[in-house]
């Protein structure tokens, strides 16, 4: 974990998307437009609510984001699944940041609550990921975490038991 800093700007995230941050075949973020954050402001392997690692990241909301034109015409709302994907992206990023090898895959989520919306007048989303388990054995590399997304300080999405694994395949 000491190999990498505790915060990353957009250029760093784009390096990760190209496979340049953690190396080829290891955890990668998607490229825009599916990259759901602009910066990671804090990351650890032993912080967070449970002392097992955490990530805090931000996504600037702009009225011209691609999903507002198509979801829904005349009633623009960011799809809630994109917020969930952002949480999964950050969970996998944390595993790569730990120096663990393999490509990231979302395995599921135990519970999802959507209690608010992201419309074009919002300014910023803040993601919070708190690991409950981080497992690395010969056969399994996986993170289990709870997360939430805030829009301008208001909690709008909450998840429990999201799972991301790293695999050599």
The termini sit apart by 23 Å
Percent of residues in beta strands: 35-45%
* Assembly state (oligomeric): single chain
CATH fold node name: Thiol Ester Dehydrase, Chain A
CATH secondary-structure class: Alpha Beta
Examine the secondary-structure arrangement and name the CATH architecture: Roll
Radius of gyration: 15 Å
InterPro entries: FabA, FabA_FabZ, HotDog_dom_sf
GO molecular function: (3R)-hydroxyacyl-[acyl-carrier-protein] dehydratase activity; isomerase activity
Protein name: 3-hydroxyacyl-[acyl-carrier-protein] dehydratase FabA
Subunit structure: Homodimer.
Describe the structure.
By secondary structure, this protein is α+β, with helices and mostly antiparallel strands. The chain has a single domain, classed as Roll (Thiol Ester Dehydrase, Chain A). Helix content is 18%, strand content 36%. It has 3 helices and 7 strands. The chain has helices spanning 10-17, 66-70, 80-97, and strands spanning 39-44, 54-60, 103-108, 111-114, 124-136, 141-151, 154-167. Strands 1, 2, 3, 4, 5, 6 and 7 form a 7-stranded antiparallel sheet that branches. A hairpin with a 4-residue loop joins strand 5 (124-136) and strand 6. The longest helix is centred in the middle third of the chain and has 18 residues, at 80-97. Pathway: Lipid metabolism; fatty acid biosynthesis. It catalyses: a (3R)-hydroxyacyl-[ACP] = a (2E)-enoyl-[ACP] + H2O.
């Amino acid at each position: 974990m000491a190999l990498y800093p505790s915060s990353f700007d957009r250029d760093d995230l784009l390096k990760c998307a190209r496979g340049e941050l953690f190396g080829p075949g290891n955890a990668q973020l998607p490229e825009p437009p599916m990259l759901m954050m602009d910066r990671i402001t804090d990351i650890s392997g032993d912080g967070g609510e449970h002392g097992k690692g955490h990530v805090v990241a931000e996504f600037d909301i702009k009225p011209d984001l691609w999903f507002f034109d198509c979801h829904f015409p005349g009633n623009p709302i960011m799809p809630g699944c994109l917020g969930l994907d952002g949480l999964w992206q950050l969970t996998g990023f944390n595993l790569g940041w730990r120096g663990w090898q393999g490509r990231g895959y979302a395995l599921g989520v135990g519970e999802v609550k959507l209690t608010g919306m992201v419309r074009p007048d919002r300014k910023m989303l803040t993601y919070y990921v708190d690991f409950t388990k981080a497992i690395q054995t010969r056969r399994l590399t996986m993170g289990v975490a709870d997360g939430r997304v805030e829009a301008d300080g208001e909690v709008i999405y909450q998840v429990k038991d999201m799972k991301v694994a790293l695999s050599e395949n």
